Amino acid sequence: xxxxxxxxxxxxxxxxxxxxxxxxxxxxxxxxxxxxxxxxxxxxxxxxxxxxxxxxxxxxxxxxxxxxxxxxxxxxxxxxxxxxxxxxxxxxxxxxxxxxxxxxxxxxxxxxxxxxxxxxxxxxxxxxxxxxxxxxxxxxxxxxxxxxxxxxxxxxxxx
Length: 159
Description:
This is GAF domain-containing protein. InterPro entries: FRMsr_CS, GAF, GAF-like_dom_sf, Phosphatase_reg/MetRdx. The protein is an alpha+beta fold and 159 residues long. The chain has one domain: Beta-Lactamase, CATH 3.30.450. It is built from 4 helices and 6 strands, in the order H-H-E-E-E-H-E-E-E-H. The chain has helices at 11-26, 32-46, 82-90, 142-155; strands spanning 52-59, 62-70, 76-78, 94-96, 114-122, 125-134. The longest helix is centred in the first third of the chain and has 16 residues, at 11-26.
């Protein structure tokens, strides 16, 4: 769930608070990169058991590294390659229980064991992806997927 002990309640309640916080944090700021930067920092602050949180932006037919929190990462990912590229090519969230079992997984950080990638759309076109890695197998569940999708839907208003 979340790192901060000041937030009580269920996992769902905590995610709802996180979504309200990102909405308030980004409201009024027109710069998309600044908003992605703050969104990655907010997620990194609140999610526990993660080692990379960030964004890849779709540019010239490939994903290019955007704002993130974590170790240095792969800079470019083609559509259909790895978890991020698969999310783009299929237009769907990819929740991977064990990245070592994912065909073609791109290992930017050898510590990553599970991953969730949520596609981001702008004007019904792919804009990029939210990518979150964990050093634990099976870190992400259906609740994470549901609320990270809602987080991205909120974020899409500010990019």
